[in-house]
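Postdoc handover notes: sequence design on the structure in folder B. Input tokens:
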């Protein structure tokens, strides 16, 4: 069992930002488009604040603490933001 429902999270964010999946929802191109969309400051990484804002904007009922757990579960790092390089 996955610690975070990533399928639902990615589907919700993609739908909110009108991002049509390219190569499937979990294709690298689709993921990169989602990543670039939620990287609000265009710094090349998604920090905890950007993750929380993206999840809230997409209509997910989530607390800041839960969004932090989401980011930590994906990177296994508490102090560093998530970069696209983690997945490529």
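Designed sequence:
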């Amino acid at each position: 069992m996955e610690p975070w429902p990533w399928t639902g999270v990615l589907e919700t964010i993609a739908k909110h930002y009108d991002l049509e999946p390219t190569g499937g929802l979990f294709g690298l191109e689709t993921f990169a488009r989602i990543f670039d969309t939620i990287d609000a400051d265009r710094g090349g990484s998604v920090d905890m604040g950007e993750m929380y804002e993206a999840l809230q904007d997409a209509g997910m009922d989530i607390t800041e603490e839960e969004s932090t757990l989401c980011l930590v579960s994906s990177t296994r790092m508490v102090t560093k933001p998530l970069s696209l390089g983690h997945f490529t």
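Context for whoever picks this up: Residues 53 and 87 are 21 Å apart (CA to CA). Don't rerun without checking with the PI first.
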